[in-house]
Amino acid sequence: MDLTFTPQEEKFRSELRGWLDANIPETWKDLRFWRGISDDEGFELRRDWERRKYEAGFAGIAWPTEYGGRGGTPGMKAIYDEEMALARAPQSANGLGLTFLAPTVMAIGTDQQKRDIIGPMLRNDVIWCQGFSEPGAGSDLAALRTSGVLDGDEYVVNGQKIWTTNAMHGDKLFTLVRTEPGSQAHRGISMLLIDMHQPGVETRPLRQISGASEFGEVFFTDARVKASDCLGGIGNGWKTAMLLLSFERGASGISQYTNYRRGYDEIAAAARKLGRDTDPTLRRELASRLVELECLRYHAMHVLTQVEQGRDLGSESSITKLQWSEAYQKLFETFDHLLGLDGVVAAPVDGLDLASLQFEAFWTRSVTIWGGSSQVQRNIVAERVLGLPR
């Protein structure tokens, strides 16, 4: 495991840090600013921010230059993730497209798909959503029922997707559809690229316990998509989806560690201000949380080292998802133990404004479910990494 970065990468860090310092308004660094504006206004601010990053050369850090990227190293991408977290930069408005779809299109897309998808996505001209989960087909993704029936050179799509991030702001959707009537499990599925602004596509927001509505439902009623707008080939949707999801690896744990460590420091500071820093039970919990976060950091550096050496991690990426999601959730369970019943009400506690932490605590309840539940990740690690019998 290599814990260092090259001089070239550290030069990139200095350049990026200087640009972020000059271009992120101080008001944006306070989560209360984002809570005080509408979802639509916040989204447009983030979309414009992404466009300015692209214009300054800070988008697609590790993408090949032929696709509009910077052509950087995995280490530069890790530094980018870390510095964005340290600067409290806004979250990406096109994260699913940039993280998952773009590298998949680069790998297996047609020349036309590469021309039509990658550039507009990097500039944030087109916002992409991911349509995988369905009612009754969440963790068991192969049980999906949304259908596509061929009609001439188009597929007519009917069905429903749920828990679709950015559904209310998306322009296009990459989604899994059963295109072979009567097929079951992983067979007969295709990944279609659907225009969300056409008749027959309806989106509805889903209100979360935290009050946010970043997810939505998507309903298809005779929506149409050209047969050529299929990524990876008709009937190859499952294989394409597995390739797409494999890009959720690399050094993602580095930015997560940075964000979670800041949360840890804020929780520890709150414990001191509330006079709970001498509570032996809470101190043991906080010590355990700190150890778990440091283990996450070392694991992230291990993963980065493997990626730099050209190793395909495959199913081992499930270890990363399992580790960061459970460490994050446990951290805010400790926060809940600190506040007790006050943790479920976004109101000052003994004069302390802890609303941002209280909001985040609600969010963490979901992280061991979406993106593949902890139970599913443990099965993957057991069967495909450790080779244990089913």
UniProtKB/TrEMBL annotation:
Task: Report if keyword Acetylation is assigned.
Answer: no
Note the Gene3D superfamilies from the entry: Acyl-CoA dehydrogenase/oxidase, N-terminal domain, Butyryl-CoA Dehydrogenase, subunit A, domain 2, Butyryl-CoA Dehydrogenase, subunit A, domain 3
Q: GO MF terms on file? A: flavin adenine dinucleotide binding; oxidoreductase activity, acting on the CH-CH group of donors
Per the record, the domain of life is Bacteria
Output this protein's name: Acyl-CoA dehydrogenase family protein
InterPro entries assigned to the protein according to its UniProt record, in alphabetical order = Acyl-CoA_Oxase/DH_mid-dom (IPR006091), Acyl-CoA_Oxase/DH_mid-dom_sf (IPR046373), AcylCo_DH-like_C (IPR036250), AcylCo_DH/oxidase_C (IPR009075), AcylCoA_DH/ox_N (IPR013786), AcylCoA_DH/ox_N_sf (IPR037069), AcylCoA_DH/oxidase_NM_dom_sf (IPR009100), Mycobact_Acyl-CoA_DH (IPR052161)
Query: Which family does the UniProt entry place this protein in?
Result: Belongs to the acyl-CoA dehydrogenase family.
Q: Which UniProt keywords apply?
A: FAD, Flavoprotein, Oxidoreductase
